[in-house]
Amino acid sequence: MEKIRFASPHKSQFFPTLKKRVDAYFTENDKTRYANKTMVVKTVVLLSAYILPFFAILIFTPPFWVSMLLWLVMGAGISGIGMSIMHDANHGAFSNNPVVNKWLGYTINLAGAGVTNWKLQHNILHHTYTNVANLDEDIKDRGVIKLSPHEKTGPLHRFQWLYAFFFYGILTLYWVLLKDFIQYVHFIKSGVNRQTRAENTEMLLGLILMKVIYLSIFFAIPVFVFHLPFLEILAGFLLMHFAAGLVLTVIFQLAHSVEGTEHPLPNDAGVIEKDWAIHQLETTVNFSPRNKWLSWYIGGLNFQIEHHLFPKICHVHYPRIAPIVKKTAAEFGLTYLENKSFASALRSHIASLKRFGAPSFNEAIV
Predict the structure, then answer these.
(1) Given 58, 178, 223, 271, which is the most exposed site by the fewest CB atoms within 10 A?
(2) 316: how many CB neighbours lie within 10 A of its CB?
């Protein structure tokens, strides 16, 4: 990772110009870059959508079908928390107070996942090396789903456009049970995790403790304290995670694994011959920009271009700065990638899955 860098032979003034214009927008309109009242209300609503249904299940012991509906609401709630609250906080974009960001960043624990690994995977690897094979963890080849043209095509990949969404649905469950521990080892070996041995020991113990508490809350308390049927709790827990995993993964894939995005590779000197900001434009796609309800729920992740260029700006401001980004890109002759609707973005993602998985598609790294 240390050997890979961005260096264009022709330095562009695109990002310096864009940054000045975005800075001017906040200054001239006397607006904060961080959360506003809308964001605070959203935070309360999404946390309530996750926590209150669980209390309802425990206290009122509703019929099975009502219980499953409540677990579904919890799945929608935790994915909303992940896309809006946790995501902004761990980018330092929720508040100008680092303590607020730190504690709201821990809302990732509500999904049974660890915060340090997420920051390493997302903030460092994904945001720096977007769509770069072997560096961007979000497109990493795990043998089942191929999201990069530079990975070997296996016999199953031709069907990945059919089965991918099942694996998307088990993402958060995989995270709870295995992913954190696999990443813990991998990030230390690869040098992405640069903490001391003592810090990593503390991190590992914290991960284990967090997951024990998380699973105890969802299984031990309902079964042994409230005497609810174990199989009903298990069914609801799995349903919640499948809903959350499906929503989270699909939303993130629609921004990068769609038709039109680039998947650049470094040259022999370890250089990607692009300015970093232009690289972000070429590897990122917005979708459904006019859908205010979708934008509210998914934390502005339909404005991924703006998020990748300005990750420390709270997502509630993206719809306002998007026209500035789009206009500036046009002035510099750069393409601003966008799918007008959620449906068109989803179709584009499925088309990418088909293209990457086709037996004739072979651009494998040797």
Answers:
(1) 178
(2) 22
